[in-house]
């Protein structure tokens, strides 16, 4: 209570100016123009090539990942069932 200094009026900070929007818009246009020049206008071709690479990767996953692992799993189950049916395996020894 002993210190009664008047409060200074707060200055309004003008942070949201049009300059920031102008700079971001200009930078976006420059980047877009650079991408068009680098691809020489063949953006559709670039997207098509990317989709083709994705399709090859998806085909590889389905054929070699899912289908082949299913076949290997079935073969392993058949081998373990074959070993279980053998009666010549010595008793008390663990089976592989």
User: What is the number of beta strands?
Assistant: 0
Count up the helices. Answer: 2
Mean pLDDT: 77
* Major sheet summary line: none
Instruction: Give start-end ranges of low-pLDDT stretches.
Output: none
SS strand fraction: under 5%
Structural class: mainly alpha
Principal-axis shape equals: elongated
Features:
96 residues, single chain, mainly alpha, 67% helix
Describe what this molecule looks like in 3D.
The chain has helices spanning 18-38, 43-85. The chain has a domain at 42-85. It has 96 residues and is mostly helical. The longest helix has 43 residues, at 43-85. The mean pLDDT is 77.
Q: Quick summary of this structure?
A:
The chain is mostly helical and 96 residues long. Helices cover 67% and strands 0% of the residues.
Per-chain topology:
Layout: H1 18-38, H2 43-85
């Amino acid at each position: 209570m002993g210190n009664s200094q008047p409060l200074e009026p707060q200055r309004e900070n003008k942070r949201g100016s049009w300059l920031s929007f102008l700079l971001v818009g200009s930078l976006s246009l420059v980047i877009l123009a650079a991408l068009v020049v680098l691809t020489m206008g063949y953006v559709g071709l670039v997207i098509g090539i990317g989709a083709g690479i994705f399709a090859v990767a998806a085909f590889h996953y389905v054929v070699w990942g899912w289908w082949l692992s299913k076949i290997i799993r079935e073969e392993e189950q058949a081998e373990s069932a074959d070993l279980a049916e053998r009666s010549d395996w010595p008793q008390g020894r663990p089976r592989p």
